[in-house]
Amino acid sequence: xxxxxESHAITILGxxxxxxxxxxxxVVRAPDGSGTIASNIIRSQWAEHAxxxxxxxxxxxxxxxxxxxxxxxxxxxDADRKLSDVDAIAATAGPGLIxxxxxxxxxxxxxxxxxxxxxxAINHLEAHALTVGLTDQLKPPYxxxxxxxxxxxTVLVEAVGRYxxxxxxxxxxxxxxxxxxxxxxxxxxxxxxxVERMAERGDPAAFAFPRPMRGRPxxxxxxxxxxTAVRRTAQELVPLSDSTVSDLCASFEAAVCDCVVDRCERAxxxxxxxxxxxxxxxxxxxxxxxxxxxxxxxxxxxxxxVRLVVPPPRLCADNxxxxxxxxxxxxxRGMLHDGLAQSARARWPLDELADPVLGAxxxxxxx
Length: 367
Ligand code: KG4
Ligand code: ZN
Hints:
Elements: E1 10-16, E2 21-29, E3 35-44, H1 46-49, H2 57-78, E4 88-94, H3 98-115, E5 119-123, H4 124-135, E6 142-147, E7 152-159, E8 162-168, H5 174-184, H6 191-199, H7 224-236, H8 242-275, E9 281-284, H9 291-304, E10 308-309, H10 313-316, H11 321-332
Parallel strand pairs: 1-4, 4-5, 6-9, 9-10
Antiparallel strand pairs: 1-2, 2-3, 6-7, 7-8
Helix pairs in contact: 2-3, 4-11, 5-6, 5-7, 6-8, 7-8, 8-9
Bound molecules: 5'-O-[(R)-(carboxyoxy)(hydroxy)phosphoryl]adenosine and zinc ion.
């Protein structure tokens, strides 16, 4: 295996199959540490899962298998590259749905063996965490708020490969709360964008929903009680008119914003102690696309005098450019471990030393 040196541009092919997006991308990392996306192909599986109201793991794995080769070919074609032009191959190895992870990682291993190129097995959460290096040239240290369908965490990103988890959810992830709320209100999946669309015409003060964990000294999140409060209120108001659904969605979003801002305020206190006076606040994950949440966090960041950095929505949600980029950041620092020896991991905490939070389940923290 020949390792690309720090003085050369590195071209990486990234593969992402941890949930319901089949994605491949080609990213070039320049010696000055900047990155360029040469291609970024994302195929969402929503049509396959729609009838079931959520992601079915077996269907997801089969759907990845059915199209991954085509998606990789398209990524290389769009980037105007041949496989031989690529310096390294990277695939998400966890955390996520094990069947899909195995599909992506196995394809990446086969390609690495066939071409004698290095393989990097990437932690999906690290890929989210480092995306701002690609989009905004922002390098660690910074405070990360990761809000996706599977995760809700605040993390001190001290350096590439050095993460300290501060808070995590004790029940539902924030994206999960959006998805479940959408379902109970009869909105189509994926729930986050559906709730957001309805909320645009609603009154955020129409219903006084709870703000779980707000003001609590421990750094964690909780959203299950909020979702249940929406369910109870909705049941009392049946049959629901469109304007009532809009009010419920807007009030739900308002409660979410209050909770998230409060938890970020709590995390910023820790971040200041560990990272210095004005750590940037970075937001990643699919829920970071939510406009009300972005506005609320911007107001909070302005008041706190910290810089808020949120990648564009297409790079907040799952994609393979972030996987390729994380691999480039590792390669440039000589952090190459043998990806061929790495198995897919359904659970793979970013901070392996963090205590599991209450509600993380018997198998320990997912992430
Ligand atoms: O990061 P992501 O694409 O996949 C995971 O790693 O989970 O996040 C998907 C989650 C879903 O729960 C989806 O409903 C939510 O992000 N989401 C949103 C919005 N767009 C996507 N939630 C709120 N508002 C949005 N605009
Ligand atoms: Zn994700």
